[in-house]
Amino acid sequence: xxxxxxxxxxxxxxxxxxxxxxxxxxxxxxxxxxxxxxxxxxxxxxxxxxxxxxxxxxxxxxxxxxxxxxxxxxxxxxxxxxxxxxxxxxxxxxxxxxxxxxxxxxxxxxxxxxxxxxxxxxxxxxxxxxxxxxxxxxxxxxxxxxxxxxxxxxxxxxxxxxxxxxxxxxxxxxxxxxxxxxxxxxxxxxxxxxxxxxxxxxxxxxxxxxxxxxxxxxxxxxxxxxxxxxxxxxxxxxxxxxxxxxxxxxxxxxxxxxxxxxxxxxxxxxxxxxxxxxxxxxxxxxxxxxxxxxxxxxxxxxxxxxxxxxxxxxxxxxxxxxxxxxxxxxxxxxxxxxxxxxxxxxxxxxxxxxxxxxxxx
Length: 361
Description:
This protein is of the alpha/beta class. The protein contains eight helices and 14 strands. The strands form three sheets. It has an eight-stranded mixed beta barrel, surrounded by four helices. The protein has a three-stranded antiparallel beta sheet with strand order 3-4-5, with no helix packed on it. A two-stranded antiparallel ribbon has the order 1-2.
């Protein structure tokens, strides 16, 4: 039998078929090499990208820790965490109001501040001093009944309603005040002129005290100070003591030295340390005579114009008009409005609430 011409004994196939098989095999090997090389390059690229991301992350972290991000760059930076607060010093908290030697530096609580609004409407977050007794009242327990603010504990009223009275109040019907729910009056004894420095007695003082007492209202008094020395403060206190001699004064004697609005006054250049010494001098004289002194002021004056840590043993008559007393420290009285209409006073009344019955203290 004759075999085909293309059959070879050595391979069992022709050279053409063998060539085709080899070609296909080489082509498959080439594809494999190309795929392998591509994967290696892709892996190197991913590693390079990952390296770049790490570098960028490190750069970002270094920028943050270097302090390029500042509190003022963030609009929510009103209060600080304890870690961030470590860089905020006592000097920063009081820099607008206290020199270094005037600061006590005691008890400043990291991370806790209170917003203070000044008479020019500027604002500042001021550190709260936790060495001063804190305001522990429950805000939702202050409830208005008509125009009278009351405070409740376990559904029981534990407060007393009061009104500030002076010759500027005009003719006052104290009987109507009493029947309308008023418990006490803070009656102006006098003032010192903010430019002349002259002490002037309130013309209606004695009459107001006698009528309030006759109507069954408890009486406290206050003096509007413009003292610029300790001696002047003692002079003011002596004038008040002489005015109330023989009168039944059961509520406190108030020291009121708030800022004069829209005008210059003789006390403008006093330092916080000076004001603190003057306030203490007045109240020491009053306390020494057996009466209860109380320090009147709004938030900015009590916190920033005085050194509250050095007056913390005295009661505070807090003056800030609103529905909630936004004051971080303990107070015993709060003047919450100067625009209330009540029976007995023809004009607007300046209303207060007392959390203490001073008539029994």
